[in-house]
Amino acid sequence: MATIEQLGYSAFFIALTCIFAIVARRLNERLSKDGLVKDLIFEAIAAAELCGCCFELIIVADNFGVATYAVFLFTLTIWWGRNWGSATACPYTYMEQIVEGEVSFKEAALKIWAQLMGGCCIFRYVQLYWWFEFAETHEGRAFEDCKADLQVNLYLGAFIEGFATLCCRLASKVISEKDARFGAFIDSFIGTSLVVAAFNYSGGYFNPVLATALKWGCAGNSALEHIIVYWIGSCVGAVLSVPLFKTATFRNMFLTEKTKSE
């Protein structure tokens, strides 16, 4: 049975990963010149931090339950929001910006590539920590064959990932425009709640880079199925949030006070 001490090893690893990311960001800030390369490095660092922490959150969920996992995720989401700056560690934010005409396709593609590199390469660091097996919860995990999280029909899984992403993005846009006093906490709560709701169906990733770093090549899903669920599903949901957020119906429902004041 998992103990608080073993949970402590997971918490330590997550905190250590966040500290490494802080140091890496500060070094990039000091040593890199302002421009695209600097932004690419920031994206790679953010994606590495996200995926490194979420690898360990798998351990937390498997051994301590989804509720404990949710508490960690809620806290980390707030932390990331306050420390990543302009980095997102998520591809569809740049796809939204392409739709809005705010970024070129080339720049978006490079940033997504940087995210993938950061997210996928971090596993060796995670694997090293698991290999030491400081906690019983890490025993055999370093070289264990992974299993896909999709527990429902392929297209239902894509719908779940897409619809939840759509809800997350719309909520974030509303909170941002309203400039809510506790916006970061509300946003994190909504995102975490949706992840928990989808956890036993699609895994609740809502981020193609995260899903690819953690579950690409795992038994149970082909490469095409993974792309349909975690890339096409999420990205379509995010892109649809752009025109939907601008519709009069949506704005009247969720931004009534702001509309009246204008």
From TrEMBL:
Q: What is its main location?
A: membrane
* Transmembrane spans: 6-28, 66-85, 184-207, 227-245
Q: Which UniProt keywords apply?
A: Membrane, Repeat, Transmembrane, Transmembrane helix, Transport
Q: Which GO terms describe its cellular component?
A: cytoplasm; membrane
Taxonomically, which superkingdom? Eukaryota
Q: Which SUPFAM superfamilies match?
A: Aquaporin-like
Q: How does it sit in the membrane?
A: Multi-pass membrane protein
Is Transmembrane helix given among the entry's keywords?
yes
Q: Coiled-coil stretches, from where to where? A: none
User: Localized where?
Assistant: Membrane
GO molecular function per UniProt: channel activity
Membership in a protein family: Belongs to the MIP/aquaporin (TC 1.A.8) family. AQP11/AQP12 subfamily.
Provide the protein name: Aquaporin
